[in-house]
Every structure is written in C-alpha cells, then in structure tokens.
Design a protein that fits this description.
The protein is built from two helices and eight strands, in the order H-E-E-E-E-E-E-E-E-H. The termini are far apart. About 24% of the residues have low confidence. Strand 3 and strand 4 form a beta hairpin.
C-alpha cells in the first residue's frame, strides 16, 4: 500500500500522541502501587493535602501560608523545581484539617484535601457528590 503525503501524517500524529500519553502516565513504585511524578501536594500545618479536581466549592477566610514542596523529578534533567508558597483559605463547610483551598486569591484557589488510606474525608466526598 502506498501512502500519499497527506495520509502519512495521520499515523505519525497518532504515534506522537501515544508517546506523549505514555510520558504522562504514572510510574510503578517499590510497593507495587502506581505513583505520579511530582503529584500536586500542599503542606500546611504539618499536614499533606492532595489535589481534588473538578469540584465546585467556595473559598472562605484566609488561613495563612501553605507550601507546594520542591520537585526533583524533571524527566532526567539535573534540576529541581523550587518550592512555592501560596495563601491557604478555608473551604466553606469543611474543617481545615480535612480540606483547604490554595491560590493567590479565593477566586482562583484550588481545592486540596487530606486523604486517609487513599480515601477522601466524607465531608469532601459530599462536596464532590453535590457538584
């Protein structure tokens, strides 16, 4: 079968997409569980919070400063992404021990929660279910 210039582009594009998707997948850790490279984690008051995506919430009052720790997994490069600080905000209806919002302003804040045994606190799950 002979490929014309135009029809040869599709297989190349599909191959490029497959390679890009593979680069974004999780890697296996020593305990057999998959782990994302430099997952979005936030440190606040000796607790570690992780990203909760696609949830409608209302950020409340300012709590203080939270830290996004440095990341040294830069795809084989010899550099470390620096730590970053941001403002932590209350999440209406959820205690800060379970979830906070982080960002420059309440309007652009991102919801993060403390996971226990890889599960969200019930209050956060209710928020997700109501979104």
């Amino acid at each position: 079968m002979r490929w014309s210039g135009r029809s040869a582009v599709l297989p190349l594009m599909l191959t490029a997409l497959a390679v890009a998707a593979a680069a974004c997948t999780t890697s296996s850790s020593s305990d057999g569980e998959g782990s994302a490279s430099c997952a979005y984690r936030i440190l606040y008051q000796d607790r570690t919070y992780e990203d909760v995506a696609d949830v409608t919430f209302k950020a409340g009052g300012k709590l203080g400063t939270a830290t996004h720790p440095a990341c040294d997994d830069t795809g084989g490069q010899d550099e470390t992404l620096p730590a970053d600080t941001m403002t932590a905000y209350e999440v209406d209806g959820i205690p800060p021990e379970m979830a906070i919002a982080v960002g420059d302003t309440p309007a652009d804040a991102r919801l993060v929660a403390v996971y226990s045994n890889k599960e969200l606190p019930p209050e956060v799950q209710k928020l997700i279910d109501g979104s």
